[in-house]
Amino acid sequence: MAQRFTVTARLAEACSAVGYRRDIGYQTFLYSNVTEVRRVFMFLIEQLPKDTTDSADPETPFDRVTDMENRILENMRQQLRGSWRTDPSPLDLRNSTLGWPSRSRVNIPFVTQRNVTAEIKEYWLRRSGFWDEEKDEVDRNLPETAVNAEESILKLQAYYAQHKSKSAFAEDLEEHETPSSLDQLDAVQQEIDKINTAIEEARREQRELQSKRSIVGENVKALDSVTEKLKEEKKIKERTHILLENPEVNVAKLESIIAAAGEKMKKLQTQWETHRAPLMATLQEHQAKNSDQVSKSQKVVDQIESARHKSEEVIVDLQTKSA
């Protein structure tokens, strides 16, 4: 049990060292759960190099699961061939002739048996007996355990040699890890088609809404003009209604307003006539001056025309005489 605990603890530490982020410990391998162990194997498979090839046995098909299993088998074989205890004990002197090999040599003072107390002798006696019993039991069980492990490894190798094709676990892994690229492209194309259809539908709705908006705008303009007319009619009717409430007083007020407006118009007309008279005189004066200038200009034009005709006649006479 102690050896199993040591091996599983080392496996857990190795998985954590390569980057496994979930909770892992000796209990993951010692009291194995299919889901947890499968998750660990999937992580270890992902950590393997992508371009490795198995050149030792070209006939055997290569896949990541087989390579991982071969690594595990080799690691287990090395551990079974080696010692189960990594740190030497000071009481285990059967495999070492130099005492403690991991420590440097020191000068130990000479101690006789007389200088050792009875309590120390009794302690080392009990400790030595306990260690011998434990070591003997381990030594007795170790060959049998190693033989059984070697037989299991040979059986496992024979099984994988017979089944050279990929295991169902690897096929399941590939099915889950690497989906078909064609399926992905089809899914993406379907999404693109859906988006294009939605865009066309939105554009069609936009055109319909724009046409409806133009129609509604024209209706709003027509309603605005009708509203303005109704407002004018409302004002007239309100004023008429006010007059009809008290007709005598309101008619008298209206007549006074009309008379005042007539007087105002007369005053404005008188002022206009007063202002218009000098303007008309100035206008007539300018027109007379303009007519004189026009007549003078016309005379000058007539003189120029007559001079031109005379010059033409003179030229003709000169040409006839010269001929």
Automatic annotation (TrEMBL):
Amino acid composition bias (Polar residues), ranges on this chain: 290-300
Residue ranges of domain CCDC22 N-terminal in the record: 1-49
Superkingdom of origin: Eukaryota
Keyword field: Coiled coil
Domain CCDC22 coiled-coil stretches: 163-322
Signal peptide region: none
InterPro entries per the UniProt record, alphabetical: CCDC22, CCDC22_CC, CCDC22_N
Listed GO MF terms: cullin family protein binding
Chain coiled-coil ranges: 185-219
Biological process (GO), any one: positive regulation of ubiquitin-dependent protein catabolic process
One Pfam family, short name: CCDC22_N
Annotated spans, Disordered: 286-305
Protein family membership: Belongs to the CCDC22 family.
Protein name, as recorded: Coiled-coil domain-containing protein 22 homolog
Organism of provenance: Anopheles maculatus
